[in-house]
Specification:
eight-stranded mixed β-sheet, 11 helices, 16% strand
């Protein structure tokens, strides 16, 4: 009989760099000519944001932020190790990496023999581990499990795209690479087969914004792409995955990887800070195992708050609900200046 464990983490890119680079996204935003000068003045910012920024542009706060993230990753890794999974299903976004102009599917399951990547090949600054630029990391894939899962989903009417390899001329989705970087932060290995499932979280911005930062001064020229899958469809995918796995004898981790509201996507704050209020509301629902609140989200709601990547969590929570999992622990590491707050969770 299958056993399932729900996990939520972040794949925050700036965690991989030094403390003095952790506010690089905000500093870049402050150079946007489309933002009024008075809003760039820290005196106009929320009090907690000013305190984080301090007199060193957040470098001191970055060290504390990093330590909280490390502690949360250690707790999650211990839960995974104690569970001893046969497979770790990871839902992560594709930020104009494998999904580009030639094809943008709503989802893609990667049934790989191994998941390998070079995390520092194109790095613009030193990494927190002081590892060489040509370092290659490699983790076991779950090709056979992925093939069977895709086949079962397709036979049940869920039209799930799949692939047996990543395109070598394009970046490896950092949602998966960074997740493994942080779960294996001491570089002792991550022996559990990984089954990545990409989600087109960026939808209307995946091509037009190339899944990234567009200045406020440029928004008027952006022509939106078609939307990504709805939160409800993501939960349906998660539920379908849980149903298939429930009929197996596998021990499976169901893992969502993303931060929540991203400042650089939150047009309402002029890209200066994330939608903290909305994140806190979703956190309360997560802690209460209130799946209906998550199901009630709309694509427009998420885009308005810069919460596009939370669709990865919708997938995991859809699976958790179908499997009867409840939140055992959920913790948000809040931040106003490090682009996003980061949430961690364990559901059993």
């Amino acid at each position: 009989m299958a056993e399932l464990l729900g996990i939520g983490i972040t794949h925050y890119p700036r965690l991989a760099g030094p403390d003095d680079q952790m506010t690089a996204t905000l500093r870049r935003t402050l150079s946007d000519p489309g933002i009024p000068a008075q809003l760039k003045d820290p005196a106009s910012w929320p009090e907690d944001m000013r305190a984080e920024w301090g007199d060193d542009q957040g470098t001191t706060a970055a060290a504390a932020h990093r330590e909280q993230l490390r502690e949360s990753f250690a707790r999650v890794r211990a839960a995974i190790d104690n569970f001893r999974p046969d497979v770790v299903v990871i839902w992560g976004d594709d930020q104009y990496e494998q999904f580009r102009e030639d094809i943008v599917p709503p989802f893609c399951l990667y049934a790989l023999d191994r998941f390998g990547f070079q995390p520092w090949r194109e790095a613009k600054y030193a990494n927190a581990w002081d590892e060489p630029a040509d370092l290659t990391l490699s983790y076991p894939g779950a090709r056979d499990i992925g093939r069977r899962l895709a086949g079962e989903l397709l036979s049940r009417g869920f039209d799930l795209p799949y692939a047996y390899k990543l395109r070598e001329d394009r970046p490896v989705p950092h949602a998966f690479g960074n997740s493994l970087l942080y779960l294996d932060s001491d570089r002792t290995g991550f022996p559990y087969p990984v089954l990545p499932i990409s989600v087109n979280c960026y939808g209307s911005a995946v091509i037009s914004r190339k899944g990234g930062v567009v200045q406020m001064s440029e928004l008027g020229d952006v022509v939106a792409d078609p939307p990504g899958p709805t939160p409800q469809r993501c939960m349906e995918l998660g539920a379908a995955v849980a149903e298939v796995l429930a009929g197996s004898d596998l021990r499976a981790v169901l893992l969502a990887s993303s931060s929540w509201s991203h400042a650089f996507l939150n047009d309402r704050s002029m890209h200066l800070w994330p939608d903290m209020e909305s994140d806190r509301e979703y956190l309360a629902a997560l802690r209460a195992s209130d799946f209906d609140t998550w199901r009630g989200a709309s694509t427009g709601d998420l885009e308005l708050s810069g919460q596009q990547e939370m669709l990865n969590w919708h997938c995991m929570l859809g699976a958790a609900e179908r499997a009867g999992l409840k939140t055992e622990w959920a913790h948000m590491v809040e931040s106003w200046i490090f682009n996003s707050s980061k949430t961690f969770a364990i559901l059993r």
